[in-house]
């Protein structure tokens, strides 16, 4: 199967009484961005930015890692590249965010890994602007964690994403860049700190 052929609509269940959509009975997908934004705002107000960022990065990472393992177990993709790219495809089908890969390059023998793309209509960035205004740092913590978890599971080595551009910082769109942890600089320290315990397991 090619990544573009994966149809999430065949894999989700919607409960009309509760308004809850479940994906393979393992996680919930909430489509009300306003409610999610308000919840995140309240958590940040209560916990502070540093602890909240860690919480959301870790939450995203755990879902990304487990989702990848499920995809690998349950579906047969034509190539490794299709399996890797199926992560952004899932996000597009969910309708939460349109994830468009720009470049994917990796080499298992040398440890090279490079994956870039754009998050269009990033719900986290839009929520941040609505409740907190423009930020001086990337704000798509859950998406960054998810992408890091997905690609770490794929590669079997710690991979990290941080956004070079983000709507929440006042840019025109959100871009992600995934690469090995050692290749990141000072701007990645909060993300590395949030995930280093998880990477001990990889």
Explain what you see:
With 202 residues, the protein is an alpha+beta fold. It has a single domain (3-199), classed as Trafficking protein particle complex subunit 3 (Muramoyl-pentapeptide Carboxypeptidase, domain 2), CATH 3.30.1380.20. It is 46% helix and 22% strand. The protein has helices spanning 33-47, 49-74, 80-94, 123-132, 141-155, 189-199; strands at 12-15, 20-23, 27-29, 98-107, 112-120, 159-165, 174-180. The protein has a four-stranded antiparallel β-sheet. A three-stranded antiparallel β-sheet has the order 1-2-3, with no helix packed on it. The model has no long low-confidence stretch (mean pLDDT 86).
CATH class: Alpha Beta
CATH architecture: 2-Layer Sandwich
SSE order, one letter for each helix or strand: EEEHHHEEHHEEH
> What percentage of residues falls in helices of 4 or more residues?
40-55%
- Structural category is alpha+beta
Strand content: 15-25%
Which residue ranges are poorly predicted, with pLDDT under 50 across at least 5 consecutive positions?
none
What is the spatial order of strands in the main beta sheet? 4-5-7-6
Which fold name corresponds to the CATH topology? Answer: Muramoyl-pentapeptide Carboxypeptidase, domain 2
The tally of helices reads 6
């Amino acid at each position: 199967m090619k990544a573009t052929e994966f149809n999430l609509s065949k894999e989700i269940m919607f409960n009309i009484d509760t308004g809850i959509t479940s994906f393979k009975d393992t996680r919930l997908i909430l489509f009300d961005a306003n409610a999610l934004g308000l919840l995140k705002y309240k958590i940040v107000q209560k916990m502070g930015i540093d602890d909240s960022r860690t919480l959301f990065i870790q939450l995203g990472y755990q879902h990304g890692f487990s989702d990848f393992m499920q995809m690998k177990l349950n579906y047969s993709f034509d190539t490794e590249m299709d399996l890797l790219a199926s992560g952004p495809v899932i996000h597009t089908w969910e309708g939460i965010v349109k994830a468009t890969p720009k470049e994917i390059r990796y080499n298992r023998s040398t440890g090279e890994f490079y994956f870039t793309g754009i998050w269009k209509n990033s719900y986290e960035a839009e929520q941040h602007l609505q409740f907190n205004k423009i930020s001086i740092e990337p704000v798509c913590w859950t998406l960054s964690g998810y992408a890091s978890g997905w690609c770490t599971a794929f590669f079997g080595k710690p991979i990290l994403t941080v956004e070079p551009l983000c709507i929440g910082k006042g840019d025109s769109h959100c871009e992600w860049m995934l690469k090995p942890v050692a290749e990141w600089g000072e701007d990645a320290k909060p993300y590395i700190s949030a995930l280093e315990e998880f990477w001990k397991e990889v």
